[in-house]
Design goal:
The structure holds two protein chains of two kinds.
Chain A lengths: L5 E12 L2 E12 L3 E5 L6 H8 L7 E6 L2 E2 L7 H6 L1 E4 L11 H11 L5 H14 L15 H13 L5 E5 L7 H16 L4 E4 L3 H7 L2 E6 L2 E6 L2 H6 L4 H8 L5
Parallel strand pairs in A: 3-8, 3-9, 6-7, 7-8
Antiparallel strand pairs in A: 1-2, 1-4, 4-5, 9-10
Helix pairs in contact in A: 3-4, 3-5, 5-6
Chain B lengths: L2 H41 L5 H13 L3 H11 L9 H26 L3 H9 L4 H31 L11 H12 L2 H35 L2
Helix pairs in contact in B: 1-4, 1-7, 1-8, 2-4, 3-4, 4-6, 5-6, 6-8, 7-8
The chains are: A alpha/beta, B mainly alpha.
């Protein structure tokens, strides 16, 4: 990656909760167009890392910079900063009292003060890209898990974020729905979206990642810019042991 | 049962119903205002005021309205605070109801998963925007049945107003029985008039609940 197109920079991030260290001195730089996949065992801090970047958690040390500006949950500009950081959660969390179209246009209209017609036009185009334009007037409860998750991705995209954080977005889905959601993410990656992805889908991680981060115990244990090589023969024993748990041969 | 007795008493009961309704609804309105104010203070976690809210809620939920009215009407004048019976009635009802409404609003807000707020924040909404567009519309739908139950409860509680010499339905019935001993007629009329007052509220409440659920969740 060339220099100067850095989107996100994390410096010595430290996060504790009730005396337990959740994130222990993590530093990371994400460049424009990069897709970084974070993997690791449950409780290693990978979801917390994403939540810290979106300032949903308070941090005890280090700093997070988006385009050089600190992301600080106590600062006045925090909603401005969050606008540029898209996040999709494991449980999709659409707004149940809004239709699909209202779900994806609420923030563009209320936060970015865009014209309703413009926001809706773009929303329908994006919904069409994920194959859901015909469901725009339905309510979330009428959709399957996979469909809801695709809507949640569109909801984040409608804000034109600089970076998209995906937090185990297929973990709550039935197996046959995982594919339709991952297809959407793959196409985003191909079109140059900058993403930080936490997932347990190893085959997907290998296909989509420019870079792999393996976390354990709140630290980056192994980092690899060659995902194929990482999955074939990881350098650290810990990563090897972790990857082995996905083998059934 | 004597028909002419009933016809003769009807106007008196009508008068009493109007008075009961007037004070009752003033009380309900006050209750909503107090309830919203308490919820606001609790949500914003304003120090000192927050503890006062807790004291207020526990005080009024754990003492009978009868005692509260006695206090407002007979004890406060000794401290120099004088109110008309009518004001005592609506204020007493409002204070009692405010404590119940605050609890209902709280449980409505708590039924919304925290991640709903986080999703809203992650889209760049401020806490106020998240509250207004995401949390409150859902919480209102969840709270509506509790609010309606509170309104019915408060309107029924007006039956203790007679102790501070308000000519409400209960007072009128007791008064007439005392004078003419037409117990059956008087109490039948009393039951009918309470139903006239409360049945429409019940019916409207269930209709509103169904309607809001459909409007809010498409169900």
């Amino acid at each position: 990656m060339e220099h100067g197109n850095e989107v996100l920079r994390i410096e010595h991030l430290h996060k504790e909760f009730e005396g337990n260290v959740i994130i222990n001195d993590i530093s990371l730089t994400v460049h424009k167009g990069e897709v970084i996949v974070v993997i690791g065992p449950s409780g290693c801090g990978k979801s917390t890392l994403l939540r810290c970047i979106n300032a949903l958690e308070d941090i005890q040390g280090g700093q997070i910079l988006l385009d050089g500006v600190p992301v600080d949950r106590t600062a006045k500009n925090i909603s401005r900063m969050r606008e540029k950081i898209g996040m999709v959660f494991q449980s999709y969390d659409l707004f149940p009292h809004k239709t699909i179209l209202q779900n994806v246009t609420l923030a563009p209209i209320k936060v970015q003060k865009r014209k309703k017609e413009d926001a809706e036009k773009e929303a329908v185009e994006l919904l069409d890209r994920v194959g859901l334009a015909d469901r725009k007037d339905d309510y979330p409860r009428q959709l399957s898990g996979g469909q809801k998750q695709r809507v949640a991705i569109v909801r984040a995209l409608c804000m034109h974020p600089d970076i998209l954080l995906l937090d185990e977005i297929t973990a709550a889905l039935d197996p046959e729905m995982v594919h339709e959601v991952l297809e959407v993410v793959l196409s985003l990656a191909r079109s140059g979206s900058t993403m930080l992805i936490v997932t347990h889908e190893m085959a997907f991680a290998r296909a989509v990642a420019n870079r792999i981060l393996f976390l354990d115990d709140g630290r980056i244990v192994e980092e690899s810019a060659d995902p194929k090589k990482f999955f074939a023969c990881p350098e650290t024993e810990r990563a090897g042991a972790f990857l082995k748990t996905f083998d059934y041969e | 049962m004597e028909k002419e007795v009933i016809l003769q008493y009807l106007p008196l009961y009508r008068e009493a119903l109007l008075l009961t309704l007037r004070i009752g609804w003033q009380g309900v309105l006050l209750a909503l205002v107090f309830g919203v104010a308490c919820t606001w203070i609790r949500q914003l976690k304003i120090p000192v005021l927050k503890s006062l809210v807790t004291v207020y809620i526990e005080l009024f939920r754990n003492t009978p309205l009868l005692v509260q009215l006695f206090f407002l009407y007979f004890a406060l004048p000794k401290a120099g605070i004088r109110m008309t019976p009518e004001l005592c009635g609506s204020l007493g009802l409002g204070l009692l109801g405010g404590a119940y409404m605050a609890e209902t609003f709280r449980s409505g807000l708590e039924s919304i998963a925290p991640i709903q707020e986080e999703s809203a924040l992650s889209l760049g909404m401020t806490s106020m925007q998240a509250l207004r567009y995401v949390i409150l519309p859902q919480a209102a739908t969840y709270s509506i049945s509790g609010i309606v139950a509170n309104v019915i409860f408060l309107l029924k509680e007006t039956s203790v107003f007679s102790v501070i010499s308000l000519m409400d339905l209960m007072f009128t019935a007791k008064d007439l029985i005392g004078m003419y001993a037409k117990t059956l007629e008087c109490l039948t009329l009393l039951v009918v008039f309470y139903l006239i007052m409360l049945l429409p509220v019940s019916v409207f409440g269930s209709w509103l609940e169904r309607r809001m659920r459909r409007a809010e969740f498409g169900a």
